[in-house]
């Protein structure tokens, strides 16, 4: 079937945006199925860098139809800003090509304020959320009290629902010691958002199903990553949505059907923002070298929050776990160029726990914090690989490292990126 899925194989920020950009050149429909504006997908084309949070990166190709699926939680203010940003960059954003699911949930200033107040109350146990209201929005959804996109279609009913929603949120905010919000101001803003977004709100599930039946290709663009998935991730240090491949079907409201490629995006080293276990984490000079200074858009600082990311060696045990949890049948390895010049590279191939060695995480990934990584060391390479476009032109040491990642991960590396530009991607032929 003409479906491809792109999934983050780590803790998000793997560079999914650029692989989506590459694949959507030959795709009719591009869709986001989970999360909200906690995501930050960066795509660099020539001198232009696009930072997308809600709209699928594939919209940058003007032949695509872009969908925001049922499984998303959408802050209308951020969405309108992003639509404007794209228009200013010359991308056509109209209701002929951008479609928002009527069943996607809304993020309000109330839910954002709750996110901040709940985090503050957690003190040392903080998740380190992006502060975008994601957790409270999925909580409201699961407790059947959320507001949905379709609520924007009836102005009067929307005002009533918003008033009731803000009154409820204010009770909780006050209990957490946070200031209450002004329902009137929020309702006025939403009145404007509703007027602007109404033409885009539609039955995306039916449109995507019709497209698939007509053999149009669909690219489902995952946000965050496998290790942040609400079920398979490092709970409770996770996001609140399904980030794994299985979430595509419920998150787009389409039936189960065969998928052609389930592509896991893996960075050549491991990064994470926010709290939670990280067995291969590095500190000091080496960490600074992998993270970058923050001067370049591709340095390891959050696209959404600007926070410096925690960095470490690539964790092959967690990669194999992600391959299994998603059914990944191909990998794209990003940022290989960042490793150039390091004398030695390490790859975590197993964990040690209670005197035993484990090739897969013991007890799911619940005991990750106690696991000590077992490393295999590799010789590095000096050569700058940024201008290489053929796999066999990569230094031998780089090919050895990639081959071992394939063996440990259990899936072929089909693409390797060696720089931020659109053309800096090598097809390996694997
Ligand atoms: P939330 O999704 O804002 O609730 O944040 C929960 C956890 O997921 C925190 O550790 C965030 O830093 C992390 N997170 C959420 N979205 C992203 C992302 O797009 N990239 C990387 N980490 C993310």
Which descriptors apply to this entry?
single chain; 10-stranded mixed β-sheet; Adenylosuccinate Synthetase, subunit A, domain 2; Adenylosuccinate Synthetase, Chain A, domain 3; 430 residues; Adenylosuccinate Synthetase, Chain A, domain 1; globular; 3 domains; alpha/beta; 30% helix; 4-stranded mixed β-sheet; binds inosinic acid
Describe the structure.
With 430 residues, this protein is of the alpha/beta class. Helices cover 30% and strands 20% of the residues. It has three domains: 3-102 and 202-263, Adenylosuccinate Synthetase, subunit A, domain 1 (Adenylosuccinate Synthetase, Chain A, domain 1), CATH 3.40.440.10; 105-198, Adenylosuccinate Synthetase, subunit A, domain 2, CATH 1.10.300.10; 267-427, Alpha-Beta Complex (Adenylosuccinate Synthetase, Chain A, domain 3). The protein contains eleven helices and 20 strands. A ten-stranded mixed sheet has the order 9-7-5-2-10-1-11-15-19-20, sandwiched between helices. Strands 14, 16, 17 and 18 form a four-stranded mixed sheet that branches. A hairpin with a 2-residue loop joins strand 16 (344-353) and strand 17. Helix 3 packs parallel to helix 5 and helix 5 crosses helix 6 (183-197). It is globular and about 65 Å long. The two termini are 21 Å apart. Inosinic acid binds at residues 11-13, 38-40, 127-130, 132, 134-135, 223-224, 228, 237, 239-240, 273-274.
